[in-house]
Amino acid sequence: MSSSRSSRFRRLLPVRSWQVSSDVTTPAASPSRSDQSAIASEPQHTNAYPQGLEILTEGVDPVVDIVAVHGLNGHRSKTWAASNGVLWLRDLLPLDIPNARMFSWGYDANTHAKSHVSCKYLYDHARTLVSDLCRKRKLSDSMERPIIFIAHSLGGLVVKSALIHSDSARKGALQDHRSIKVSTYGIIFMGTPHQGGSGVQLGRLMVNVASLFVAADDRLLRHLERDSEWLQQQLGQFSSIGEDFVTKFAFESYETPTFLGRSIMVVPRASAVVSSQANAEAIPIAADHREMVRYRSRSDEGYTTISEHLQIMIKAAPLAVHRQWEVERRVETARNISSGAAFSVEFALPDVVGVLNFVARSEELAEIHAALENHQQSRKIVVVHGLGGMGKTQIAAQYAKCHKDDYSAIFWLNAKDETSLKQSYSKAASRILQAHPSASSLESAVESGDLDSAVRSVKQWLNQARNSRWLMIYDNYDTPSFGRERLDEPNNDTNVDEVSESGYDIRPFLPETHHGAVLVTTRSAKVSIGRRIKLGKLKQLEDSLKILSDASGRQNIAEDAGAVELARELDGLPLALVTAGAYLDNVATTFSEYLEMYRASWLSLQKTTPDLLSYEDRALYSTWNMSYRQIEHQSPPSAMLLRLLAYFDNEDVWFELLQEANNTISDGAPEYIDPIQRENTGWLLDLVDDVLRFNKVVRILCDYSLLEADISTNDNGQVESPGYSMHACVHSWTRHVLNREFDHTLAWIPIHCVALHMPSFDSPRYWELNQRLIRHAGRCYTIITDKGPEIQVPQGGGWAFIALGALFMYYGSQFNEAEEMYRRALNGDELSPEEPVDRLTMRAIVRLGWLHRIRGDLAKAEIIFGRALQAQENFLGPESDDEELFDLITSLGHLYSDQGRFGDAMAAYQRVLEHHESTLGSDDYKTLLVVNDIGDVHWREGRLNEARIMCQRALRGHEKKLGADHVETLHIVHNLAAISKQQGFLGDSENMYKHVLQGYEATVGPNHRFTLATVHGLAWLRMEQGSLGEAEALYKRAKQGYERLFGIDGVRTNIGALDIFYNLADLYEIQGRISEARELFLLCREGYEAVYGKGHEEYLDVVKRLADLD
């Protein structure tokens, strides 16, 4: 394993936009004082026209909502108020109609005032009306309560447009909007101009309407031309639904004085009444256009007319609207059935290996189906629970196959753990997107590779109102955790039902909507999130014999007394039957002989696990133990390999990884499996020496279904050979039964293999290989920390802890785990400059210094590096050519650069460069890394041309040796993007940042600090380009990512995070969001003081920025 260094793990974006150079200007800079004065001189709008819904009275046990909508230049209250102050909707109508809730809705119809220009058109107002009503009615659980609209003048056109919109809102985020149209029983139009007389008379009338008031808006008036495209479209659309409402057309009887002093009939009867509409009635009101909606008392003739019409309508409204909702539900159900293609996804269960001939379970299948019926009206959840091996997965798959036509889409999700579940959601997102390419939210989630985004997007897709015919199957949810309620811990070390170390709550992963079907399979009887169905043993002997026959490939076994006896012994446990059949399919053993061995194994198992008799699943244990006995007899290496795999992670163990057991580190260190251990592991060394022998041994385990080949990893692009996985329950069995006594020799093998298999940074696709290793590193960490005192570390074995630490630090961003490994490598020793330091200790010390630097603890890193350098030079001499010494000097250069000590950094880099060029050559990988570091110093000191020259040299070398898409090459391109940005080549910079971001997301993932640094750089560029909204979104993504990686407390002293805070604060200041800017600047001041001290320029700069805000 080559020695690594970390210049790209430093601040990849150390320069901030306000410090680049004196001759660089920012297009999106803060407004100058003169600009601010100009802005201040603009007239400010005051809300003299209140908007939104106002509840005038709640009503007593209301059975109807009455909604009043004012007209052009109207007012939510004043339009309906008489000169004596009586607002009849509030003061009079509740006396005659106490069981109605009264709303008045205000909107921006004051469209001509110089102090305020409306930017909304009629359809915008209409959507807002529907949205406001939906929100109020939903909060009060009155979505199906009848509605009667009272609309004056222009308000009538808004109401008509609102009902048109509501009628069309059948899907998506606006699905609730349809409830307004369905619930509307009647409308009273008060002087609404539905149509004109001839020519452009309607438009002229509306111009006259404007003259009645303070203001008017030519843009709105253009909509009211009779021949305008919008009005014709509206009239045509409403005519198709107008017959659904009881409608009253009230019209004015008197002329109205205008602002110019003359009187006109603003909306004559011909325009106010749609005579062709059935179910409608014309109502004359003895008043002018303005006063026709203002009543002084209950004796007012106009009030009496309107209130009586309302009372009659209210009597009929509840029953009529109830029937409308029944029809709506029937139509919606029929529509869902007939138009399921709108949300259909082709049936497929790609991640499920089903049986060719499913046996029995007809009662359980019928029970599941009955429980999941009517899932379109309300969400149905079924939890199938039972003993491991009862066939929960198979019955779920069979249900999906039998009822695939009942659902528009079926998705199978692996719920083993949170990561697996998120990955399954990601696959589901890809399937949905393939079937429905227009699903833009899913497209972004799939392209980003963000698993959390995939979960959210799929759930949003499922939550749509019309998408109610889906089935989600969450398989193998075996580690539940609901707050403090967890599964009982096992009480002995041979319990196959032992849960894994970490559980999770599945409820946040379920769709929130109240439709659809959910099927969960679990070993836990405590998962009570839906209808629980226990899956017990097979009741009919014939069913057990059928499974045994299919699995063994033997026919007519019902006539075989041994088979019948074996089926009874296995007591209807499907996995035990399948496993026994798989064994018998590969040997000449008879059923009776198998049963004899099974019973012998069971007696032995009783002696070693006395508590096991109390468990129903003894057949499952005995089948696995029986298979193991036969494996021991047939192939001892296979049996030993099965035991060894208990110390690896249960997924993705592959040949090249195990092959490292036969290798040792190649730089002069001692061998780390000592002769005694090699004597005990000779079987493994022989096994991995020949891939054909290895395949033969592994195939035996696969034959017994104890291992499964990961065929899916055979896709093009797989790094090294495909792996083998073991079911989590089987893995627990190998750990607690096969390895009841901790085996020190076997436990060290995965630690050795994982550590030694880590590739060097200049290896092709090294990142992808390390991603395969990281899960095994986690298993090693668990062994090391849980069994620390019991582990016999070979002489010099601390090198493995260093390698695991590097894996955690660089590839897993698991910094606590990395520190634990480094400290174990040091064995608690403190570095003393006066004592000789071996190579292993020096590596551990330097890596620990790197870790502190990445975390942002520069002071601690400097102490560690300083002591290490003094110790190295004391015992090697200052003129030594030792590579470890120059790696340390390079690390010091990185630290100096972070501290702003660019002269010291340059001196360190130049010393290393001179050495590398003379000993390694000018094109060596390590030489080019230092070249890039020197370019970084030039960049940060403003020597942009020199920086570009050095980075381009490094880039040419990296592309030649590693390729353009290698992670290390992307680091260089990233730095060139920053240089190009500062030199004003914004287009080039943008292209490079996008290329790097895409590369990082595909390799290291969307949440790695490399990716986040590039997001930061792109945000910095967007800010320079003046795209402040996009810049803010990118800054926030980077900020949140750093907070996840380092913790809320950790980011307070992390330089990269502090730079993001600073830039985001700068953006807030530009936007005038001073309080938010101040909050972030204060965090920066605190952080820079802790990292640099009060005398540093970074600290002084942020102090000045804070002063400028005051």
TrEMBL record:
DUF676 domain segment(s): 66-201
Keyword terms: TPR repeat
Alphabetical list of InterPro entries matching this protein: AAA_16, AB_hydrolase_fold, DUF676_lipase-like, NLR-like, P-loop_NTPase, TPR-like_helical_dom_sf, TPR_rpt
Region of interest called Disordered, as start-end residue ranges on this chain: 23-42
Keyword Transcription regulation (UniProt): no
SMART domains, per the entry: TPR
Record field: transmembrane: none
Source domain of life: Eukaryota
Domain Orc1-like AAA ATPase: 357-446
Record family assignment: Belongs to the putative lipase ROG1 family.
Protein name: NB-ARC domain-containing protein
